[in-house]
């Protein structure tokens, strides 16, 4: 049964396209076995072949590393980049406007409630594109030319990521009383302004 699980794991990684590391592991194992003093004797004594799996562990298929390599199951080329790239902390700052959430204790919300209960607080965060319309262009031209009274701003007001829908949150305080705070958490976000 253990042998079958090992084989399933190997085939799973190969099928996912992450089997490119297997030939390098096999080559590394062969180099270490050939450089050791016992060489093939230690590999045969332990029942391990070139693939690291014994002949009995390969099950009914009987495929070794050479057969797997010849059949294309062990790809020597690296797999293509994953479709979903790994995100860093910095990329979270430049992410588009959207709903985020954090688990936080009620006492840390700053509303004056004495409660150790943890709630899911949802908020809006992210960047909004600055799409200027005809009104924005005309207004900035009139302000800069002095036709309209007002200060000339050096930077333009950009849209903000704001909640468009809210939801209530209910919790139990430390005196065992229920509290319901209306429109505390965001339920939908959009770029406003």
UniProtKB/TrEMBL annotation:
Residues 87-192 form the TGF-beta family profile domain. The keyword Disulfide bond applies. Belongs to the TGF-beta family. GDNF subfamily. It comes from Pagothenia borchgrevinki (Bald rockcod). Keywords: Disulfide bond, Growth factor, Secreted, Signal. It is found in: Secreted. One of its GO terms (cellular component) is extracellular region. GO terms for biological process: system development. Residues 1-19 form the signal peptide. CDD domains: TGF_beta_Persephin. The keyword Signal applies. Its main location: secreted. This is TGF-beta family profile domain-containing protein. GO terms for molecular function: growth factor activity.
